[in-house]
UniProtKB/TrEMBL annotation:
Gene Ontology BP annotations: response to stress
Keywords: Hydrolase, Magnesium, Signal
Entry-linked CDD domains: RecA-like_BCS1
Protein name: AAA+ ATPase domain-containing protein
Database matches in InterPro entries: AAA+_ATPase, AAA_N_dom, At3g28540-like_C, ATPase_AAA_core, Mitochondrial_chaperone_BCS1, P-loop_NTPase
Domain AAA+ ATPase: 223-387
Molecular function GO labels: ATP binding; ATP hydrolysis activity
UniProt catalytic activity: ATP + H2O = ADP + phosphate + H(+)
Family classification: Belongs to the AAA ATPase family. BCS1 subfamily.
Cofactor(s) the protein requires to work: Mg(2+)
Length: 506
């Protein structure tokens, strides 16, 4: 036995010494040759399905992940990964890192392996820290019988799992990547405080979009649609987005433009979104400068006192935002208007299908007209102050009072109807009054009517005129105090200098 180990050690020493004499290029060629020979004579075929394909997310990877998660719960494996999202009651089973799972399809056995390895640092490109993929092993003789049918079956099964899963996902962008949490917003079109006719119109438009694949293909248009929600704060723009997501059963991608460093990163984020999704940019007027697209102009003038070759360059006043739309400014750390326009209606916006873009703003007048045109923002929805039909929905939601069924005293209901338009209260304002008094319906209605009357009186034309005149009078007094006074040819400042000027004249 001792002689055997001695012989093995000697052979290993000779092998290590010989390896040092072989150039690295030759070693690599030998390894490749051995791998090719092994693959040629191996009875199996291997297929790798990576999480990321270039800059896109691989939808097949997520389909396999969902399919194997449903199979892993009933499989007899020693290691399983268990996950439960934030605010979610569902526990998800999955393959642990580098674990294997056998499956059978049409009588053919296959093996799945979940490969997770640290990702090597890439040059300037943002990827997850780990490289994840699934490896499918199929017997060589069975490949032509099941490979296409099996993968199609997995995709259909994954779609079925998604439909049965009522939880929506809310994605947020961070460090150039999307991170998700369960989306549990309870808002629906039934609970949304809005005119019923407007809600019916929006639901019809959404349904036509979701069922319009053949229409968009026939007309040569990208399967996407843009919505602009505008109006005062508190009118339910965010609730509208949640209602759309719950109505269509779409995921939401909440895009924070301040986290995006360049137009190229914005395009990559767009390509990483999935189908059946809503891409949201809230308060678009506050995200980036979208009003000034003029190119800066610089006029060169020679001063009279300059010598030959010395030029005094004078430039017209230009806002810093004027440079924001220049694509040549590669070092900029903000998204430009042209980048946002291409994001919503450029060539890159067609890299995907069945997606809805939703922008919200409190000040539509601040937005560039190029962003508002059809093709980018196809449908403009004005989220107005609470109307009487919307008020009845709020009363039913918060107090359980059905105005149409006679649950409210007619005199009170008539008073609310008479005051609602002049009060200009948002659904959020009315909801706050109802929430505070939700245990006493009578008190809630009384306080709501009083609040509406107070708002109406404050906003009456006479009061508005009086307040404007008072404001102008106060402004005039301030200008008089701050304006300089001329005494014996000398300009004396206003304000605190007035007492000193009076004493000096006396």
């Amino acid at each position: 036995m001792k002689e055997l180990w001695t012989t093995i050690a000697s052979l290993m020493g000779v092998f290590v010494f010989a390896k040092t004499l072989i150039p690295p290029e030759l070693q690599s060629a030998v390894h490749k040759l051995i791998h090719l020979l092994f693959s040629y004579f191996s009875p199996y075929r291997y297929y790798e399905i990576t999480e990321i394909d270039g800059v896109n997310t691989n939808e097949l990877y997520h389909a396999v992940q969902l399919y194997l998660s449903s199979s892993a719960s009933s499989a007899t494996l020693n290691r399983l990964s268990l996950t439960r999202g934030l605010n979610s009651s569902t526990i998800t089973f999955g393959l642990a890192n580098n674990a294997r799972l056998s499956d059978v399809f049409n009588g053919v056995s296959v093996v799945w392996e979940h490969i997770v390895a640290p990702r090597q640092s890439s040059s300037g490109r943002r990827f997850p820290e780990e490289k994840r993929s699934f490896t499918l092993r199929i017997n060589r003789r069975d490949k032509r019988f099941i490979i296409n049918d099996y993968l199609d079956f997995i995709s259909r099964k994954a779609d079925e799992i998604k439909r049965n899963n009522k939880d929506r996902l809310l994605y947020i962008n961070s460090r150039g990547w999307w991170e998700s949490v369960p989306f549990k917003h309870p808002s629906t079109f039934e609970t949304l405080a809005m005119d019923p006719a407007m809600k019916t119109e929006i639901k019809t438009d959404l349904r036509d979009f979701a069922d319009g694949q053949a229409f968009y293909k026939r007309t040569g248009r990208a399967w996407k649609r843009g919505y602009l929600l505008y109006g005062p704060p508190g009118t339910g723009k965010s609730s509208m987005i949640a209602a759309i997501a719950n109505f269509l059963e779409y995921d939401i991608y909440d895009l924070e433009l301040s986290e995006v460093k360049a137009n190229s990163e914005l395009r990559k984020l767009l390509m990483k979104t999935t189908t059946k999704s809503i891409i949201v940019i809230e308060d678009i007027d506050c995200s980036i400068n979208l009003t000034n697209r003029k190119k800066p102009t610089v006029s060169k003038q020679r001063t009279s006192g300059s010598t030959d070759g010395d030029l005094d360059f004078k430039s017209s006043p230009v806002e810093p935002a004027a440079f924001a739309d220049s694509e040549s400014n590669e070092g900029s750390t903000s998204v430009t208007l042209s980048g946002l326009l291409n994001f919503t209606d450029g060539i890159w916006s067609c890299c995907g299908s069945e997606r809805i873009f939703v922008f919200t703003t409190n000040h539509i007048e601040k937005l560039d007209q190029a962003l508002l045109r059809s093709g980018r923002m196809d449908k403009h929805i004005f989220m107005s102050y609470c109307s009487f039909p919307a008020l009845k929905i709020l009363l039913k939601n918060y107090l359980g009072c059905d105005a149409d069924a006679g649950d409210i005293v007619p005199e009170v209901l008539e008073g609310l109807e008479a005051e609602i338009d002049g009060a200009e209260m948002t659904p959020a304002d009315i909801a706050e009054v109802l929430i505070k008094n939700r245990r006493d319906n009578s008190r809630a209605l009384t306080e709501l009517l009083a609040a509406m009357k107070g708002r109406s009186e404050t906003k009456s034309p006479v009061n508005l005129l009086c307040r404007r005149l008072a404001a102008e009078e106060v402004a005039e007094e301030k200008r008089a105090l701050n304006s300089p006074k001329e005494v014996d040819g000398a300009a004396i400042g206003g304000g605190a200098d007035l007492e000193y000027t009076k004493e000096w004249k006396d």
